[in-house]
Amino acid sequence: MTTPRNDSQIKVITGNAAAAIGAKLARPDVVAAYPITPQTEVIEQLSLFHATGELDCELITVEGENSAMNSVMAASLAGGRVFTASSSWGLVFMYDAVLAVAGARAPVVMVNVNRETPGIIAVSCGQQDMISTRDSGWIFTIAENCQEVLDQVLMAYRLAEDYDIQLPVMVHYDGFYVSYLSEVVDIPSQESVDQFLSILKTQPERTKLVPGQKLGCGSHGILGGYLELRHKHVSAMERSKAKFDQIDQEFMDQFGRSYGGQVEEYCMEDAEVVLVGSGSMCGTIKSVIDEKREAGIKVGLLKLRMYRPFPSERIIESLKGRKAVGVVDRSLNFGFKGGPIYTEIKAFETQMGGAKLVSFIDGIANTDITKANVANMIDMTCDLAAGKDVPEVTWVSYPEANEGV
Length: 405
Description:
15 strands; Rossmann fold
């Protein structure tokens, strides 16, 4: 066990700045990205670090997001440590390259600053971009606040480049609510980050392109070999669950901060009803839970930190035996009545010891997940636990939807 270091700096910075600092501390060899609201500040910060000599890397200023992802994929396959960032339309524009990176098992690390996706044009928060790419073969994690953004970027490199994993990792955080939020952040020293990442140097060297040597990447017509590669990819995704829990504990040993790994539990010891959430909403949910607890209501929060692979075992363990569970989604699941995270948890309903489930959709487009909304969700979940008639799906900020309008 490593003794936590005391050589960190305390600064008030934005979530975007935290992402940029986390990337800088990881010492990437290549950074390539294209600006898009609300991610632009990440690239501005990295460009400043590069211009002042704080970041020693190849900074590629590309003409679009697709080129950014292709650039870091090539650099990663050549053995380099890489970083990129995007959001919403930018993530959609690089989608074909996102799939190629996953298929090549290139350990690319990027941040995606959650924002509504094309369709109805909305420059506002929502996790629809994350949902639109959830089955691309990447590992997805979700950060709640500025400190966790920085910490998750560092953990992402440990996870992506681990010899037993070798998969790309996308760190998500809510646009506008976290990207531009300024909070106190404990910034670790370069020496301590180097020590945290140094274990990667002791592992076997990963497969990479070497001039003069043969290596197939994205080869066509491999038929039976394709099945083998896909199975190994899925197996690596499953291994990443326990690995993420392990990395979280090692992060605690190094820096004195732990988040619980795949999921974080808040006031769950004796909780009879539970809200499940992710991202910035969890801070609001925690504050309302504190108030409800003072009123004698046994309510808790299960926060998802890993979304792909889906932490089903940890979720079942946490929710088993609860009276009722309300799942809060900041995105839509077209073709299903409930939100996407709700729908996935509902698949395990029979394994949760009788816990009843209800879906809440809130915080999409320009709507905020307010304390009043959270209190309403908790009250409805308590009603469900008491056997009262509660709609399966509630659009919290759009009551007309609940009336069938």
